[in-house]
Amino acid sequence: MANQLPYDATMIPTELERNISEVDRRIRAAERAAGRATGAVSLLAVSKTKPSELVRQAHGFGLSAFGENYAQEMAEKAAALADLPLCWHFIGPIQSNKTALIAEVSDWVHSIDRLKVARRLSEQRPDDKAPLNVLVQVNTSNEDSKSGVGPDAAPELMAAINELPGLRLRGFMTIPAATTNQAEQREPFRQLRELMARLSGSLPQLDTLSMGMSGDLEAAVSEGANIVRVGTDIFGARYN
Q1: How far apart (Å, rounded) are the C-alpha atoms in residues 226 and 211?
Q2: What domains can you pick out in the chain, each with its CATH number?
């Protein structure tokens, strides 16, 4: 009897490869439509709840950056896949008791919205590692259910984070309200792009906008996204 795979058996490697190729095609088409250089946008494969075996297969099809929502799951995958040159991005809400693990394992953190958390990440970043690349999460849709600092409060938080030695401040992340209307999709992304432009005088190192997912990546690319976070259209529906 064959071993039962710990993931959806319908997600055979050829299907995974087709999914990755199609997402890449969409990103490059969006770059062309927006008049942006080819390769200006990076794909972050959101692998939360997916097993390390599937991440290994995705790496075999050209992916190297993976996003995780849960610190312990990220750490376990990083250990299981330590033989691969992977870049780990933490993209979920940050619990104070998980900052040490996140600071040790991740290369990027997209979801900082409190100075307390930023300070802990800075203090707990191992001395033998480069400063942790970080993004401030902004709640552009003003939804109570969403994490993130308000746009008006973001500049003060950014200035404080910029003083922390264990962190390298890079830009912003947002998860706007879901909509299928592209004009409505673009609005929060435009707000974030304009916010970063306003802060570029005092924080010239800002260079990253993490915005756009499976359903709205074209709108995000049109408004200046550097990183799009795609899970469902690569790996299929998430596991609980």
Answers
A1: 8
A2: 13-235 (3.20.20.10)
